[in-house]
Model the fold of this input.
Amino acid sequence: MLSEVAQVPEVKITDDFTLRFEIDGLTELGKQVAEKELRETPEVKQKAIEELKKLLEAETDYVLPLDNEEWLVRFLRPCKFYPESARDLVKRYYNFKVKHSKLYDGLTPEKEANLFQNNILTVSGSRDQLGRRVLVLELGKKWNHKKVTLDEVFKGCVLFVESAMLEPETQVNGGIVIFDMEGLSMQQTWQFTPSFAKLIVDWLQDSIPLRVKAIHIVNQPKIFNLVFALFKPFFREKLRSRIYFHGNDRESLHKHISAKCLPACYGGVSEVQRIDADQWYKLLMLCNKEYEAINSYGVKKALKN
Done:
């Protein structure tokens, strides 16, 4: 982490389950995936860290935590430990923040309580069968667009991705997204614009150091096609091939995500209690200083004194 913490942030949900960020080392599954898919070995990792640090030292337009090896590894893992690619990702990550400064300036959990109070965005309490984090967005019947704007939804996604970037296991295995569009109305579809669609796709494809392994659309009504049509022109083949439409077909969803890892509302049999957004928010708030530290790095000219 970029800030000092006395202990790993955690929130007790029940007597049997505690929600926490998993910032310890990799599990055995994570180590296997890292070596097989990311070329990660101790030798490759250390050499890449040293080379990336040198490359970034030459990028004098940025303020970066170059002495923090864990931070460097966050960008190396999604780039399969190729230092030049990781350097380019670092630059895109920070340049995107500058381009969309209205959304990013001073972004911390304490300023985004409204989104979480409306319980439309959360993360599953358990990973899927491949060790991936599962982000769930319910932008249909749960979403009151007069109370929560799409900009707020985006900010919430950023906060979750930044927290996911802290977890070695998520850095390696990546994450998946479930968009639950049940009850989507015509008024809600009017909130989506081509500029917002481009923002989201540019962010997913080019500007986050996280492996987005799949996007699953469930419970979508026919009018969702109007929304997707806004996004479609901006997709490149890699991301397009990772988008799946399931409607109400739970068997289709279970071909990708084991029923053992899903709650009953998605035809699953997971015994892990479903986590509400306000519970995740409590955990994010424990890391508010970490987000302040994240905001202290970036393009020099854009940083506020």
In short: The first strand starts at residue 10 and ends at 14.
